[in-house]
């Protein structure tokens, strides 16, 4: 028979050593946990305190920058006020030196150059134009555009326009284009040199049926038709004034336009017409007559749109042997 295996017991001091080792390991683990907890708490405290410490210098710097900006804004405002005051003083001095009216006219001419012309309205009679003083502005003047534009209604055909609105109200007595044409042709054919004369054309104004227009071939025929129409059409009929084309002329010799009494010289319109190969119907002086300046501005009213447009394109108007500068003009 086999003998049972013999078992041995460890000595008692071995068990005690094992227990001591376990206790020491537990103690060390607890100490490590305490140390870790303290370090985490310290880091949290430092993290919570650090923003507060960094915020204080940032706030002070922002405040300083804000104060600097306010001072800079105030300084710039003061500089702007000084500049505006200087500009105002210079403008006032320029007005006193050059004349307020002339500057306003220059501004007005610039506005005319960049704005479209407005259509004209009613026309006064031919007799009203004859009674107009030389220094006044005729009404219903057609505004010329700048030289690089051409209106669609621009025409140089000479018309004798007759207004029949004030004739008899009876429909049977109203004058139409046919009777007016017959009356004018009959009267002109009685003249020795016009026995076969006929109207070039007779039209009715589409915007006003009371206005009959007789087209003329040239200036001589135009004057003849107007003369006959004023006397032979009938009571209440009015021959309207011719359409004029004004242009402004600057840097004109005052002595060539005005006489010793500061009135438009007699024969100035005829002289300017010959110098510029146009027909000048009227002249008006724009500059202040009481000024002692030897040169100024005037407006001349021409009978033909092509002549006015040509002078604007050339840029010059001859007056008394010298040349002024042309530009558009509007009342």
UniProtKB/TrEMBL annotation:
<feature type="region of interest" description="Disordered">
    <location>
        <begin position="116"/>
        <end position="149"/>
    </location>
</feature>
<protein>
    <submittedName>
        <fullName>Uncharacterized protein</fullName>
    </submittedName>
</protein>
<feature type="region of interest" description="Disordered">
    <location>
        <begin position="1"/>
        <end position="60"/>
    </location>
</feature>
<feature type="compositionally biased region" description="Polar residues">
    <location>
        <begin position="133"/>
        <end position="142"/>
    </location>
</feature>
């Amino acid at each position: 028979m086999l003998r049972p295996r013999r078992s041995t017991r460890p000595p008692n001091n071995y068990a005690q050593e094992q227990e001591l080792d376990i206790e020491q390991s537990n103690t060390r683990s607890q100490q490590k946990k305490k140390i870790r907890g303290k370090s985490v708490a310290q880091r949290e405290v430092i993290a919570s305190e650090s923003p507060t410490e960094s915020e204080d210098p940032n706030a002070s710097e922002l405040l300083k920058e804000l104060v600097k900006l306010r001072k800079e804004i105030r300084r710039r405002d003061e500089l702007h006020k000084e500049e505006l005051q200087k500009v105002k003083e210079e403008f006032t001095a320029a007005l006193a030196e050059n004349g307020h009216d002339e500057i306003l006219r220059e501004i007005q001419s610039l506005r005319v150059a960049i704005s479209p012309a407005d259509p004209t309205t009613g026309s006064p009679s031919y007799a009203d134009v004859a009674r107009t003083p030389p220094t006044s502005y005729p009404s219903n003047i057609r505004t010329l555009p700048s030289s690089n534009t051409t209106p669609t209604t621009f025409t140089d055909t000479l018309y004798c326009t007759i207004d029949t609105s004030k004739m008899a109200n009876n429909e049977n007595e109203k004058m139409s284009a046919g009777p007016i044409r017959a009356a004018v042709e009959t009267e002109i054919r009685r003249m020795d040199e016009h026995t076969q004369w006929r109207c070039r054309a007779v039209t009715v104004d589409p915007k006003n049926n009371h206005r009959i227009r007789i087209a003329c071939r040239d200036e001589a025929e135009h004057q003849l038709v107007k003369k006959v129409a004023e006397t032979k059409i009938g009571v209440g009929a009015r021959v309207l004034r011719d359409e004029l084309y004004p242009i402004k002329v600057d840097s004109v010799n005052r002595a060539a336009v005005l006489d010793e009494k500061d009135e438009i010289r007699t024969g100035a319109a005829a002289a300017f017409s010959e110098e510029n190969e146009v027909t000048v119907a009227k002249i008006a002086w724009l500059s202040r007559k009481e000024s002692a300046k030897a040169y100024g501005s005037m407006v001349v009213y021409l009978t033909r749109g092509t002549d006015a447009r040509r002078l604007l394109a050339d840029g010059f108007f001859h007056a008394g042997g010298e040349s002024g500068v042309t530009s558009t003009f509007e009342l």
